[in-house]
Design brief:
The complex is a heterodimer of chains A (280) and B (246). Chain A has 280 residues and is an alpha+beta fold. Helix content of chain A is 16%, strand content 37%. Chain B has two domains: 121 residues, Sandwich (Hypothetical Protein Tm1070, Chain: A), CATH 2.60.290; 108 residues, Sandwich (Hypothetical Protein Tm1070, Chain: A).
Amino acid sequence: MGFSIPIWYRAVNFKYLRSLVAGSLKKNFLASMKDLGPELFSLVSSGFSNNLRFKLHILSRNGEYFASHEVPSTYKPGSSVELDLTKLLTNLALPDADYLIIAVMSRGRMDGNRSSPASYSMTYIDQDNVAIYRTGAFARPLNEGRLKSHVGFTGINPKVIVNETVMSGLLLINHSSDPEYAQAAHPTSILIREDGERLKGDFGEIPPLGAREMSISDIFGSSVFEFLRPFNGRATSITTCTGVTLASLHVQRSNDNRHTLLGIEHSRPAHMNIAGILQH
Amino acid sequence: MATELEIGEAVVKGYPPAILYLRNDDIVTTELCAFNYFSTFFKGEPEAEAHVWLFDGNGDAAGYFQKDLSLDGQMQLNTSELCPNISGSVAVTLLPKSGAKIRPGKKITTGYYAQYYSGNGAITLSHEREEVTSAPFSTPPWIQTYLTRLLDQSGTVLVNACLASNGEATGKARIVALDGSILAERDLPKISPMGARRLKTMELFPRAKQLVGPAESFALELSGVNMASPFSFYEFPNGKFSLHHF
């Protein structure tokens, strides 16, 4: 796992402060202070340092906490942190298994981006393949009722492949900025092929702070092969869950006993693409 | 049936296409995947049209495709059937067929994905990147780590997202140690508007191995004008190709 801090990153500048104030004026003042207070306190207590610190928390896929690891350095703009997570898990005496790792930075960007100043970079290496993946960190309340309520989650994946060699899947994470978060998520999915015919499926329960990966055949049953055969094995899945927000990853795996990770990418929030449209 | 749309018209309409890398050759083919998400988020049964513009590495138009997308319509487009042996850039717009007024000052970009199929069954994925623009723009420094043990296989892909005739992409590449110290710097090769280049790390920095030394990782930093956010890639002798944006 790597993270490179862009050379332009500053903990605070005029544009950033202007954006923070503008954002707060649009919201309830008390809610803004609850939201931004920890960030502003951290900013002042660090002496407005541009350096960042990193800490990792290791959880099971069921959301059970195992261990934490603080990266023993601070990182300035232009530098990079790079960690071999497999070695880290070994050093922590954790057995070979699938985990969730929550990477916490000492500061994010609380302005309009509400994200990290760059992306985390993951490189998944196995005997058969190398798959790379990048995503930004969240710098905003997630599934934290006192700060933010969510209408729900909708994840669209038009890259579904089900055939003799490839099996698509979805990995959903029931994440939260609240360490005491205790709400399980129960998403449902539909699979739509090009002629509009669809199948419905139950994604299953995702424990709080946990994650669940389901292949398309796990969700919709083995008949999905026949269902999609006339369409070259291609389809779109739409997964929804009311009242929570979920992190959503699309995975392509080899359809054999090894289930090699071929490709991985996160969902794009499609509703953001229509936010500027006036509906009648 | 949708009529042909010029890419510049899409920008003027407020629906600038979003750009991605296009690679169709003996090793990699590119498939574009999109869903009519207006049918999920809009009232009624909104229809949409997909427009796809393909360019070669020099930014010359290499193909165009359009498709009507009905309620829950989708597109999985194998671009190698349209443009075999063409690598460069691709831009896609999803346009609602009617009734979509844009809020003042807003633009509507398109969400879609590419799947890059390569040797030995490998697939690598990318969501869309930045919008195509009609005016030159600056590209801030983007930096990304790579594994030194894969240095020989590593590189970057740069895509010019500017339509303007004076929108040549230029810039600098730096190879950077993890502590932020700059090991070497050089000018990037120029890229024509809407063109793209795939550059190996060793092609950019022939002394990269000596410069990086025993460190397990290094970073590339890329900046300039008219470049969308770069992609990193690893390409292996067996034909497997893995790519992701910085």
